[in-house]
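COMPLEX REQUEST
Ligand: iron/sulfur cluster
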Amino acid sequence: MNPFTYTRAGDAQQAINAFQGSPGPFYVAGATDVMQLLREDVYSPGTLVDISSLPYTQVEVGPRGARIGALARLADVADDDAVLRYYPLLARVLRETASTQIRNVATMGGNLLQRTRCLYFRDAHTACNKRRPGSGCAAMRGANRINAILGTSEQCIAAYPGDMAVALVVLDAHIQLEGPDGPRSVPVAELHRVPADDPAHDTTLRPGEIITRIDLPASRFAESCAFVKARDRMTFEWALASAAVGLEMDGGTVRVARVAAGGVGTVPWPLPRVEHALIGKALSAERAAKAAALSVEGARSAGDNGFKLKLLPRVVEQAILAAGGQA
Ligand code: SF4
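STATUS: Structure written out below.
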């Protein structure tokens, strides 16, 4: 691990000032992912700006919406009675995320910003355009079983690894930000960037911005939602493919459908074609399978990860049927 300077901020403005005045600055709170990256020399920040004391830990949840502080711990949100009642999809996803020990430490904002699990990104001795722009991509012809099949580019095929962002896309969540240019709000669906020709930048955050809160609109899918996650082992593991589904049903007919996939895209991957194939239709096993088949439109395998082309439609189909009470 390379040496760095450590600064603890007492409020958002102090944090932003410290960030702007530092060489190679980096915000840190729960530090569950950052510590690994520091130890492996993937990150070499000049300064770590600790924001864990900032007052962004509220969990305010009701039928008309939720305001969840970016520094709330995953476990606190997953176990909150109102989250379980009004946003069971979020509670379910959080319980499938990380180990109990990590959930007790990791923050909501940090979870959204976790970096890819691509083997070569986390090995500082290999070529990786995301870690060292212009160095190449060892995953293209290497071990790419966990990498993405959607949203990839010639520069990078790294999968976005998180579960929670997939559910937040379905729930139409927004993040609130504070930064050098003042506050702003961004839909979670627009937070992450596909790599295109600039894989080094994972998000649309501007330099110095801090996520302060995650806002959810009024609860919609509490009665009909599901999260299905395929992974290598039942104890904690990142998704090989996952699907979050929220439905509004009118009898047996789908009135509203929101569907997104994880573990397969370079960003949390919305599936509007799948949604359109469900809306206005009677939900059945056949309809779910036909809609789910559209989830891999435009997908591209890099070799080892070709199995995801078959896995993803199965996972999406299961999630649709589970959300509709037909699993
Ligand atoms: Fe790096 Fe992306 Fe290639 Fe992985 S897929 S080695 S993160 S450039």
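REMARKS: DSSP finds eleven helices and twelve strands in the chain. Residues 225-323 form a domain with the Enolase-like; domain 1 fold (CATH 3.30.390.50).
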